[in-house]
Specification:
The protein is mainly alpha-helical and about 40 residues long. The chain is about 90% helix and about 0% strand.
């Protein structure tokens, strides 16, 4: 069941992936920093 395994793997690594993704997006676009700040704050 690839879908179930993928879901499990994503959940297990969600924290690490999210941190990496946010850093990559922030590095790619300063405007995105403002969007993230608005979304989280």
């Amino acid at each position: 069941m690839p879908f179930i395994w993928s879901t499990f793997h994503y959940t297990a690594s969600a924290s690490h992936w999210s941190t990496f993704h946010i850093l990559k997006v922030m590095a790619a676009s300063p405007i995105t920093i403002g969007n993230l700040a608005y979304y989280f704050l």
